[in-house]
Specification:
Blueprint: H1 24-37, H2 48-77, E1 81-85, E2 89-90, H3 95-101, H4 105-114, H5 119-123, E3 130-131, H6 135-149, E4 154-159, E5 167-171, E6 174-178, E7 190-192, E8 198-202, E9 205-211, E10 214-220, E11 223-235, E12 242-252, H7 254-262, H8 266-277, H9 294-314, E13 329-334, H10 341-352, H11 357-367, E14 368-371, E15 382-384, H12 385-391, H13 393-414, H14 418-424, E16 427-428, E17 434-436, H15 437-444, E18 448-450, H16 453-463, H17 465-470, E19 475-477, H18 484-490, H19 493-503, H20 517-520, H21 524-549, E20 558-563, H22 572-587, E21 599-604, H23 612-630, E22 638-641, H24 648-657, E23 660-663, H25 675-681, E24 685-688, H26 694-701, E25 706-708, H27 713-722, H28 726-732, H29 734-744, H30 757-765, H31 771-790, H32 792-804, H33 811-823
Parallel strand pairs: 1-4, 1-13, 4-12, 13-14, 14-18, 18-19, 20-21, 20-23, 21-22, 23-24, 24-25
Antiparallel strand pairs: 2-3, 5-6, 7-11, 8-11, 9-10, 11-12, 15-17, 16-17
Bound molecules: 1-beta-D-glucopyranosyl-4-phenyl-1H-1,2,3-triazole.
Protein name: Alpha-1,4 glucan phosphorylase
Function: Allosteric enzyme that catalyzes the rate-limiting step in glycogen catabolism, the phosphorolytic cleavage of glycogen to produce glucose-1-phosphate, and plays a central role in maintaining cellular and organismal glucose homeostasis.
Catalytic activity: [(1->4)-alpha-D-glucosyl](n) + phosphate = [(1->4)-alpha-D-glucosyl](n-1) + alpha-D-glucose 1-phosphate
Length: about 850
């Protein structure tokens, strides 16, 4: 990033904002230039990868002038902006998104054709940046898209992992993880700026010193790492805006190396280098179950410290009065992963800028806001005081002082209610003395939000009730959303054309306009076209699964899809029990295959590598698939497909083809879900519990167009209170008994009863997520699905209504809510 001081004096120092000529000829010229001068090859001798890179460079070049202009303007205008701090960005492929944003899709397609290249072949070569685990990272990617499209001054900050989420393969049905070396063939979308590196300290000690009669503290780090920024363009849709995503990469500090080199230990110095560079080496693959690993804390501090310093240095003028910082920035904390930013800003303001504690704290409390993405107790991050004190001693002191002052205020308000004090303390004493990051974020944040109405309500009432009482007005809700550019326009071009034909083009940036489709749901001609789009999407999916995985998707089947991380709370096991129930009916001869509604079940799911039960469930799904798909008695009417390595790219093909969306978490466990929104916007009907954003989807699409089942959250609580015995449900339900017995019998494990025994006993004797309690209700709801699907025309009508009524779930609306309720950062047009 350029410094605030202007250096451009020559009239050509800033490229004209138009960029290269928007013509096929112009594009061909740029493309060949890039092929020759960047890749160093002639067209005739270029590899497909050369061509992909040259194409990417060309698209980039068209966006460049806008990008430079927006960076200049962002500095000039000095408007309040958002710094979105997120440890994850699950971006998906960039080429199509950037072509679309820059209105270059047609030109680029023709230009490639003029060079004898099928642009589709190049699309397939892009390795998606999988710098996230699932919902939380994908949400961040949707949000930066919306921020750019809505012209909100903002920067996304995060980590440039050298290895993103692992590549999943199956060996004998079991998950094997492979490294995701996404950078090896070149990364045309990023711009490294080693000259703008930040120095990040770790370890060492703190000391008190006398500053002209004022007692101060300072941190003397034991070692440092360089944080090198890599900038990515984030183009808005058709608005000429290009925002920045800045991801940090760790490089060894030369000073640090020198000391060791001078000691004559060359090998040790090189080792130290890799030690430093480990920080941004790999994304931790746990979703909603973080492990308290030291390297993870290093990652967190590394990227937030670099981001805060970067913002203060490059976005503010040198004479800026930091007392006014809240007028210029809001740091949005994407869950607790970046919360160490809070003591870091305090340290900078107090120790480095010499500000008084109280003034610095008042500023800090206005500069942060916190989004919570979970309710699972095991997902609430805690860092041991021991580890924090070793790695970030000054930050620990600051956290203690924040806590002391906070608890003093609590005492003042509520008296010496020791129970309450202990429950609210940022420092927990058991099982180990540790820092509760969610509490720190809540105390420091101007606002705290959950990600769906139900989640925000439970957050206030169940997880942080004392804080809600102490800070009236601090808690709010912002229901999640998804970007219609990627998930409708790009992923579902057939539907997009149909919508544009019916409603005109404005819906892509004003998704509530989809309401206009309600009237078309009553038009048989429109329904026929809509059904044809769905059929075409299924063929597109078939093609992908054939080339990607060698699968043959059966024709004429309902596509019943469950794609999301593998987690017990999401209850893939409930889906398995449904499939086994259908299969057992046929295999036992009680049900004629001909009477079964033909269905293809598609799963996509990665399990955290250390999550043993999740991996067993993956194994079971594959095992059930092998048996069901091969059994002639099924007559091909049931099919189970589990393509490995579910990612954004595959989601873009699977979701538009789906008829039925499985959103079946135990009520109260899924904070929001965002897949559920993508399915509804693609015309899939949802079978779901009253959980997360399902609640809002159902309210909007209407009960007639949604298959609700299962206990409500209060009913779940009541059953726990009464005492839950899963084996009672097993005993009482014959269908359930048959399904579980079949799994236990070894029918899916070559007769070996031990393979899936841990799953069976977990269900019968533990079942933390009440799979057995919701089984009967789920099976009944699936019967309603079958009946509804039998009337194809009525189903299509419901499907259209799902699309028409899901405009609320645009991430543009989420961002508008953030602006109104939390950020107060109006667009700068
Ligand atoms: C991960 C680690 C710690 C705490 C929370 C998480 C987390 C939560 N990771 N992903 N989530 C999901 O975030 C999505 C976006 O808000 C939600 O839709 C989804 O329900 C969460 O599970």
């Amino acid at each position: 990033p350029a410094s605030a001081a202007p250096v451009a004096t020559h009239p050509l120092a800033v490229a004209p904002v138009t960029g290269p000529p928007s013509s096929v000829d112009g594009f061909v010229r740029e493309f060949l230039n890039n092929l020759n001068y960047e890749q160093g090859v002639a067209l005739s001798s270029s590899s497909p990868n050369d061509r992909y890179l040259a194409l990417a460079y060309t698209v980039r070049d068209y966006l460049m002038a806008r990008w430079l202009e927006d960076q200049r303007r962002q500095r000039e205008v000095q408007a309040k902006g958002v710094c979105y701090l997120s440890a994850e960005y699950l971006l998906g492929r960039q080429l199509d998104n950037n072509l679309l944003a820059a209105r270059l899709t047609d030109i680029a397609t023709e230009a490639m054709a003029a060079c004898g290249i099928d642009i589709d072949d190049l699309r397939q070569l892009e390795v998606e940046p999988g710098l996230g685990n699932g919902g939380l990272g994908r949400l961040a990617a949707c949000f930066i898209d919306s921020l750019a499209t809505m012209s909100v001054p903002s920067t996304g900050y995060g980590l440039r992992y050298e290895y993103g989420i692992f590549r999943q393969t199956f060996v004998d049905g079991e998950q094997i993880e492979q490294p995701d070396a996404w950078l090896t063939l070149g990364s045309p979308w990023e711009f490294p700026h080693p000259e703008a590196a930040q120095t990040i300290g770790f370890g060492g000690y703190t000391e008190k010193y006398d500053d002209e009669g004022v007692a101060r503290s300072r941190w003397v780090p034991g070692w440092t790492v360089q944080a090198v920024p890599y900038n990515y363009m984030v183009p808005g849709y058709h608005n000429g805006r290009v925002n920045t995503l800045r991801l940090w990469s760790a490089v060894a500090s030369s000073a640090f190396d020198l000391r060791i080199f001078n000691a004559g230990d060359y090998a040790e110095a090189v080792r130290a280098q890799t030690f430093a560079e480990n920080i941004s080496k790999v994304l931790y693959p746990e979703d909603s179950t973080p492990q308290g690993k030291e390297l993870r804390l290093q990652q967190q501090y590394f990227f937030v410290a670099a981001s805060i310093h970067d913002f203060l240095e490059h976005s503010l003028s040198p004479d800026f009065d930091l007392a006014n910082l809240p007028d210029r920035v809001i740091f949005q904390l994407n869950d607790t992963h970046p919360v160490i930013a809070v003591p870091e800003l305090m340290r900078v303001l107090v120790d480095e800028k010499g500000m008084k504690w109280d003034a610095a704290w008042a500023i800090t409390q206005q500069c942060f806001a916190y989004t919570c993405h979970t309710l699972l107790p095991e997902a609430l991050e805690m860092w041991s005081v021991d580890l924090l004190g070793r790695l970030l001693p000054r930050h620990l002191e600051i956290i203690y002082r924040i806590n002391d002052e906070f608890l003093a205020a609590v005492r003042e308000r509520f008296g010496d209610d020791e129970m309450r004090i202990r429950n609210m303390s940022i420092i927990a004493d058991f099982p180990e003395r540790s820092v509760r990051m969610a509490f720190l974020a809540t105390v420091a944040g101007a606002k705290v939000n959950g990600v769906a109405e139900l989640h925000s309500q439970l957050l206030r009432e169940k997880v942080l009730p004392d804080f809600d009482e102490f800070y009236p007005g601090k808690f709010t809700n912002v229901t999640n959303g998804v970007t219609p550019r990627r998930f409708v326009r790009l992923a579902n071009p057939g539907l997009a054309s149909l919508i544009t034909e019916a409603l005109g083009a404005g819906w892509t940036v004003d998704l509530e306009r989809l309401r206009g489709l309600e009237a078309f749901a009553e038009d048989p001609e429109f329904r026929a076209k809509f059904a044809e789009v769905k059929a075409a999407n299924k063929r597109r999916l078939s093609d992908v699964l054939r080339t990607r995985d060698g699968f043959e998707v059966s024709d004429g089947h309902m596509l019943d899809v469950m794609v999301k991380r593998l987690h017990e709370y999401k209850r893939q096991m409930l889906k398995v029990l449904h499939i086994v129930t259908l299969y057992e009916g046929i295999a036992s001869g009680r049900v004629a295959a001909a009477d079964v509604q033909p269905r293809t079940f598609i799963f996509g799911a990665k399990a955290a590598p250390g999550y043993v039960m999740a991996k067993r469930i993956i194994h079971l799904i594959n095992a059930v698939g092998s048996v069901v798909n091969a059994d002639p008695r099924v007559e091909g009417r049931l099919q189970v497909l589990f393509p490995p390595n579910y990612n954004v790219t595959l989601a873009e093909r699977v979701i538009p083809a789906a008829d039925l969306s499985e959103q079946i978490s135990l009520a109260g466990k899924e904070a929001s879900g965002t897949g559920n929104m993508k399915f509804a916007l693609s015309g899939a009907l949802t079978i779901g519990t009253d959980d997360g954003a399902n609640v809002e989807i159902r309210q909007l699409v209407g009960d007639d167009n949604f298959f609700l089942f299962g206990m409500t959250e209060p009913e779940v609580e009541a059953l726990w209170a009464k005492g839950y015995k899963p084996s009672d449900f097993y005993q009482a339900d014959e269908g359930l008994r048959r399904a579980i017995d079949l799994i236990a019998s070894g029918a899916f494990s070559g007769g070996d009863r031990s393979t899936f025994e841990p799953i069976v006993s977990n269900l019968l004797y533990d079942d933390r997520f009440m799979v057995l309690a919701d089984y009967a209700s789920y099976i009944a709801a699936q019967a309603r699905v079958d009946a509804a699907y039998a009337d194809q025309d009525a189903w299509t009508r419901s499907s259209i209504l799902n699309v028409a009524r899901s405009g609320f779930f645009s991430s543009d609306r989420s961002i508008r809510d953030y602006i109104d309720r939390i950020w107060h950062t109006p667009p700068v047009l």
